[in-house]
Structures are given as structure tokens and as C-alpha cells.
Amino acid sequence: MPRKVILTCAVSGAAVADHKHPNFPHTPEEISAAVIEAARAGASVAHIHARDPQTRSGSRKVAYFEEIVDRIRQSGVDIVINLTCGDGGELFPDPNNEAVALPESDIAGAEERVAHLVACCPEIASLDVTTGNQVFDGRDGVYLNTTHTLRKMAKLFQELDVKPEIEVFGAGDILFAKQLISEGLVDGVPMIQMVLGVNWASPSDAETVQYLKGYFDPGTCWGVLGIGREQMRMVAQSVLLGGNARVGLEDNLYLDKGVFATNGQLVERAITIIRAIGEDVATPAETRQLLGLKNGP
Q: Would you put residue 83 in left (φ > 0), alpha (ψ -120 to 50) or beta?
């Protein structure tokens, strides 16, 4: 019997570079429509960022998330909702005094980073258990997620019955994820996502997947996302090794070279790959059962 693969579609992201796409979803109406499109194409889960409709930049404003989630729920489509909690960790040190953060830094506390979860009650939310050098829209900075803040966020997730999708960028992140689990801050089946292809983090290749996979404990629900042209290759690589997959415009704008994609098209291509390997895609209902999700539709 084919294995059920959880297929996530990350529909919007927060990068300024995405503005090159002529039909990229920015407003709550457009983002919710992108989720509905992904659901109808067969995605199990939608990973969602909100954006400011005027600036088109990523936003943590609770009202934007509420509008997106309300529109999805009122549409009648069934998809597991996964809201980002990754924003609020961008640090730009002053190059003349790195003990001082530049004003454009965006560092938020745990309560602020989960405020939209309180309002929206999603089934899943992302928890990025990493700190490191990254490039934000072409600018060098530090993605800062301290162990103190991550423990507080994990506890708040627990209190809200939200399953953390633990995003890891390297082996050390997996070790800290396992520490959170051992401290009782993650309930049920652990859900861990490898983020591959980010500048100055782990590369997006088969060797990295094999290496990082070796750190997972038995029973972990894990998956892989690849950035840009590696997106579909990582779908195949992950599924072949027993993992789950993620596609969507957050990670990759193109269907083919020079051809802009829609979220639905990326989901359809991923499903073709998964079924060609001999597996199948989990429905939202099957996903809820596999992960033991508590905040149902």
C-alpha cells in the first residue's frame, strides 16, 4: 500500500525578491485565494505568511492573519492551516559597533511572535530552532532565535494546542529540537522540517538529507524543503527516503526556466513526482490523524 506523504504548500513567504513575480499573492484576499488553489490542487497543508497590502512586505499584524484564515475557513475547502511564527528574528548589527542593532532590525519576544496563533487557532505553526548568518533580501544579517525565546514559544504552542512544525537548518538545530522534546515542550509525534538551500546554512543535496536524517529519533515525522531550482529535486529525495515534502511560491517562483508558477501548479507537479515514486499524498483528514492534531477545522 502506498505511504501517505504530507505535502505542504508555502503560498506566500515574506521576501521582497518575490515582487518580481507578476501575480504573487500579497493581500489577505490573494493569499487566502492561493491557499484555496493549493487545497483544490491536492495539498495536505498550507504554510502561510501575511503581508502588508500596501508595502507588500511580510507582516505580523494579527488582523491580516485573521482575515486570511477566516476567508479560508469560510470557503469550505479542507486544508490543514500552518501559520508562520518565523518573523521577529531579523538582526542587523551596526557595522561600526556590532553591539548595537540597526533600527531596521526586527526582534520580537515570544508573546508577540505567537499573538496571531491566539487569535486564529491554527492546527500547526512553524518554530524555527536556529540562529545563524543569513541573507535577507540581499542584505547580510543574523537570524536570531535564542534558546530562551524558543522554549517560551514552544510552551505557548502547547498551551494553545498548536503542533510545532520545527524547522531546522543544520545538525545542531536537530539536537536542540530533540532537547525541546526531551523537556516535554513538544507533545505527540514530533514534526521536523529540514530547510535546505538557504545562504550560509545547509546545502540542498542528497548527502545533506541523508546526513541530517540520521539524527532523527524513530517515529519522527520529517520532511524537506528545497529553495529555488532544487524544490522538486528535494521532493523526490525526501519521499524516496521516507519523508514528507514542501513546495510553493515562498521557496520557488518558477515552474520551468523563465516560466512563473502558481501555487497550484507546483502542488500538481509535486503530486506527479510523489505518485511516480509509488507513494500517495495524504488528505487533510489523514494528515490530522498522522500528526495527532488538536485544533480541527
A: beta
Between the alpha carbon of residue 285 and those of residues 43, 45, 185, 232, 253, the distances in Å are 12, 10, 25, 25, 28
How far, in Å, CA of 107 to CA of 77, rounded?
A: 35
User: Could you give the CA distance from residue 12 to residue 81 in angstroms, rounded to a whole number?
Assistant: 13
**Cα separations (Å) of 139 from 16, 133, 150, 155?**
11, 11, 25, 32
Task: Tell me whether strands 58-59 and 7-10 are parallel, antiparallel or unpaired.
Answer: unpaired
Mean pLDDT of the chain: 96
226, 233 contact by CB (below 8 A) = yes
Tell me the average pLDDT across 245-260: 96
Radius of gyration, CA atoms only, the chain: 18
Q: Do β-strands 163-168 and 191-196 pair in parallel, antiparallel, or remain unpaired?
A: parallel
Determine if the pTM surpasses 0.85: yes
Q: Collect all residues with Cβ–Cβ distance below 8 Å to 46 and sequence separation of at least 6.
A: 8, 9, 10, 11, 35, 38, 39, 72, 79, 80, 81, 82
Q: What angle do CA 287, 290, 292 make, to 5 degrees?
A: 100
In this predicted structure, the answer to whether residue 296 has a pLDDT above a threshold of 80 is no
Kindly report, residue by residue over 14-43, the tens digit of the pLDDT: 988 777 899 999 999 999 999 999 999 999
Strands 45-48 and 50-51: unpaired
| Res 297: pLDDT | 73
Question: Residue 135 above 80 pLDDT?
Answer: yes
Phi-psi region of 97 (alpha: psi -120 to 50; beta: other; left: phi over 0): beta
Distance CA 263, CA 10 (A): 8
Strands 50-51 vs 58-59: parallel, antiparallel or unpaired: antiparallel
Q: What is the mean pLDDT of residues 222-231?
A: 97
Report the distance separating Cα 213 and Cα 241, nearest Å.
9
